[in-house]
Task: inverse folding
């Protein structure tokens, strides 16, 4: 394996599958199967899931609600997704721990770095919910922060697109895919990889990012074994 410890970032939208809202159980099971394969191969897996399939803080702001309140609602949405992923993994026999940045002691452990690292060392998949626990920070920022804290080898950003392109490949048929980029190149080209806070955290702490198509079965394992899948962003 090229990477021993990874941070997998999944968007909430990815869990929708072909639905317009909520969670597609078939897609969830596909993801759980791919994660189980990694786990069985001895890779230490930490996961951050977004909440956009259920609620986004910016939605609340658009509707006139206070941004802080909306962001906390979004954090609760990430917990729903995290619990669903935990259930899907445990159905397949994978031991998991769910840690929340907001205290919810009935359903999740509080986030404690040393405990999370120990879970990984013991072969448990650790899911981090509720983002960073702070408003005005995205789950991309949470993924970057947790990857640094866990000393992960790489952030794997699983999306429905097979890498980073010059423009949106779903809208522009002439979009060209990048095989690899530096953080500075991605920034100078104005490419939307992650939000700027997350991007800066990764650059300053030398955490590479790989953007790849998570919906293609087997891609996750290929990325971790070092195959050139998706787009690699490094310092």
Result:
């Amino acid at each position: 394996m090229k990477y021993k410890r990874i941070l997998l970032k999944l968007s909430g939208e990815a869990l929708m599958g072909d639905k317009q809202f909520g969670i597609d159980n078939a897609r969830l099971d596909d993801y759980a199967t791919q994660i189980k394969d990694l786990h069985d191969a001895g890779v230490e897996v930490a996961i951050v899931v977004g909440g956009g399939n259920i609620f986004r803080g910016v939605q609340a702001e658009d509707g006139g609600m206070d941004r802080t309140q909306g962001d906390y609602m979004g954090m609760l949405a990430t917990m729903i997704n995290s619990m669903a992923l935990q259930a899907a993994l445990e159905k397949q026999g994978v031991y998991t721990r769910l840690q929340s940045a907001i205290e919810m002691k009935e359903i999740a452990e509080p986030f404690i770095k040393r405990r999370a690292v120990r879970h990984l060392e013991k072969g448990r998949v650790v899911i981090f919910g509720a983002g960073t626990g702070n408003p005005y920070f995205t789950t991309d920022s949470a993924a970057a922060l947790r990857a640094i804290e866990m000393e992960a080898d790489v952030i794997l950003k699983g999306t429905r697109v097979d890498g980073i392109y010059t423009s949106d490949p779903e809208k522009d048929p002439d979009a060209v895919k990048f095989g690899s980029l530096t953080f500075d190149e991605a920034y100078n080209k104005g490419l939307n990889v992650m939000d700027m806070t997350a991007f800066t955290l990764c650059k300053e702490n030398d955490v590479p990012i790989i953007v790849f198509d998570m919906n293609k079965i087997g891609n996750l394992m290929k990325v971790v074994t070092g195959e050139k899948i998706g787009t690699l962003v490094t310092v």
